[in-house]
Give the backbone structure.
Amino acid sequence: MLPDVGDLRSSLRVVSLPLVTRFRGITVREAALVEGPAGWSEFAPFLEYEDAEAATWLAAAIAFGWEAATPTRRDRIPVNATVPTVPSAEVAGLLARFPGTRTAKVKVADAAGHLADDVARVAAVREALGPAGRVRIDANGGWTVDEAERALRALAPFDLEYAEQPCATIDELAQLRRRTRDLAVPIAADESVRKATDPLAVARSGAADLLVLKAAPLGGVRAAAGLAAQAGLPVVVSSALDTSVGLAMGAFLAAALPELPYDCGLGTAALLAADVTHEPLTPVDGAIPVRRVVPDPDLLDRFAADADRTAWWRERLLRCHHLLPA
């Protein structure tokens, strides 16, 4: 049963957490936390998302906070480091925030940057990780097919594990995959799955070699795990710059999957300069534990959003709740 909006708003706490570096164009991450019978959960779609998309994030938050946990197959999840579009000179310092990780996801295709910047950043990551490290890139759909092909040919010498969402559309991904077969760089789909009306279209079209799944925008752990089972492709579980409460949802998704061939993008608490718990889900020996997180009251108070922002999130939650089926 869908909980009453009053139940959600009675425990609602909105936080504003500073980041260690600019990421996705922001320096502060806002998130709304709610407590249900199963524990604390998180509702944190990015601010620019419309209500129809954000409502799926609310469905995921309700499922995680009001339903019993899914059975798990592992208690630790290996994670990757995440390197935003920073100058190459800052790469080593950022990687140090992810102790023990053997994999790094490097953000590329920034609108204000150039391919030369991407090459320098990936080169710095490869040098820091050494030849045995795993380097993947994420363009967030920022390239055209021609730009993506040119970029992959420039970056392939750094032994890429895969390229995540190099182009925006499924058709573009399929074109790129055909044009770069000689490079043997697998193509991963992220936005083409979580923003699509038909998430399985990527798998059916042969546009990607693997899928990047995030629990919150796909409606929760069970929904995302069901999608993975239907798709029949290898899966990477990732996050959306969540607090440790939200990362716990991703960890339970990764723990529920029958196979986990790739390190997951669930170490992003290391990009937060503050969190809602004194025991955050930051990487230790390259992994995070699978456990629920209980926010610490003093941190909820210290990083509470101001009254206007809290009111904005309360109204957003109400609007999204109206869009959910009873």
Notes: The CA atoms of residues 102 and 132 lie 8 Å apart. The mean pLDDT is 96.
